[in-house]
Amino acid sequence: MQAIGLIETRGLTPALEALDAMCKAANVKLVDFKRIGSGLVTVIVEGDVASVAAAVEAGVAAYARTGGELISSNVIPRPHPDLAKMLY
């Protein structure tokens, strides 16, 4: 795993919109989709650093078009192996 990208949103439908844009924009793979509670949803993708960065940027832009509330987005290049254990 070279990089992890995360987008946290409020609402399932806008999160799916962001995920669709992320997967179409770059060569990334869905790692996990977590419903945290209180309507918070986190989408996690992995791939090479440039692809993950492009995917997160596309996901944030797609989410902005829905008019929803974006909580956070992040790209983690070269994550520590223990982080991967926590996510999977």
TrEMBL record:
Its main location: other. Keywords: Bacterial microcompartment. InterPro entries: BMC_dom (IPR000249), BMC_shell (IPR050575), CcmK-like_sf (IPR037233), CcmK/CsoS1_BMC (IPR044872). It is found in: Bacterial microcompartment. GO terms for cellular component: bacterial microcompartment. It comes from the Bacteria. The keyword Metal-binding does not apply. Belongs to the bacterial microcompartments protein family. This is BMC domain-containing protein.
